[in-house]
Amino acid sequence: MKNFSLISLYHIKNLGVRSIHAFLKSKGYNSNLIFFKHSYFNNAVAPTDMELTQLTGVLKKSETSLVGISVSCSAYLETAKVITTAIKEALNIPVLWGGVHATVDPEGCIQYADMLCLGEGEYPMLELLDGMESQKDIKNIRNLWFNQEGGSSSGSTVIRNPLRPLINDLSSLPLPDYSNDNKYYINKDKLYEGDPIHLDCWDYFVQGTRGCPYSCTYCSNSLFKEMYRDHGKYIRQRSPEHVINELIQAKASLKGLKMITFFDEVFGVNKKWIEGFCQQYKEKGLNLPFSCYLHPLAVRDDTLKMLKGAGVSLIGVGIQSGSERVRGNIFKRPESNKQIIEAAATIRKHKIPLVLDLIMDNPFESHEDKDETLNLLLNIPKPFKLSLYSLIYFPKTGLTEMALKQGLITPDDIEDKRQRVLSQFRVTLGYEREKWDTAWISLLILSGTPWIPRQLVSFLARRGFLRLYPYPLVILVNITKGAGWIQKAVQMAISGQITSSLIKRFIVRGKNK
Fold first, then answer.
1. How many helices and strands in the chain, by DSSP H and E?
2. 496: burial class by Cβ within 10 Å (0-12, 13-18, 19+)?
3. In the chain, what are the domains?
4. 300-329, pLDDT tens digit by residue?
5. Whole-angstrom Cα distance, residue 438 to residue 57?
């Protein structure tokens, strides 16, 4: 075959695509890696005609004979369809879709693509390229679906192959490739040759674990867990040495790198692993702060002591709702409010900055549930920050099916049509919602502000007129955020963490508030 091109949508640090690209390269395939557009903080936009022309131009120039598109989020479905049409019209070559959305909704996706890759893509893609190279039959490759009609929405014959076992030894996979060879970046009508990570390498994303021990109903991981029930161990970890070697390589390759961000669903599922990682992180002299996510039930004093000693600078903890009814009955999360408070207090004890994740715009929550969330935050030791996310109805998840059954949403609210991720994945106060909810969200934000007394937040929460006219609360939130940004900027300037790419990122973030 002439060439294979992988396309990542809206994400220059797409870990799945980068892993497949590095794996294929290690097997002798110099595939192209194209990063098509990038999104910061709710600012994803549809591709322009110029960008589509640039994309097909790269594919023609590289003599691509097969294209793989990573549809890593259901909200990217329309963009994937537009790109597929443009490629078919310009080159008339087969197009394969993979990623999260193709895996959770293959029946919907096979209408538009010639092939699908479900689940982990390293070995299916290698087998596909080997088969095409040797002109062998490729129609029985596990994890792959084939549309015999090439994207016809009706009357097509679809070959649906079963899944293969999960990759058990993640440390056998090669490290990511951050060279500029065969890489392209298309964004804002401009085409760059080379790896765009060099344009924005303030923080580095790394994943030490695949899989999640929990089955939250709003998350696609619950679907993957069920899908792979009889296909090997679901939660797998790379060795600490393998992860450390990647970080050493990243630090040497990426000039301006200041921060490591662990992208594991839950960091710290294995105490022995953390012990080995922290020891080597210090011994190898990486000297970079890092952040990670912990489940409330995984917060332990001894673990935090090790992480603190290694250089952790931020811990994220998902609580999603302060209502035990919502968390237990709707989200199927096991932790209690008492356990959340204890986890936060333990993190505070080690003087590690804390960010709490909460889900907003949840129709399952009553006013009483929302008041319970505020009360929970008022009992968590300050300071802490909040990451507020709008509830996204991903296809096929338990929560989406529950909401459909109860008539709380329609099929048009599901993310492949609604595309809420593109505009309100991160909650902003400027987004149109009920005034009561705007007031409530404002109070939540104020609850973690160090210099806003809890008594003041409680007092404001009891002022009924603010639920009808929340704008004074919004103004107060904006003042506290501005003060917080100034304080953070001073701290980062003193520590030498401010870079030009970081400044650009926060300018974009500010424009989308």
1. 21, 17
2. exposed
3. 4-172 (3.40.50.280), 201-427 (3.20.20.70)
4. 999 999 999 999 999 999 999 999 999 999
5. 46
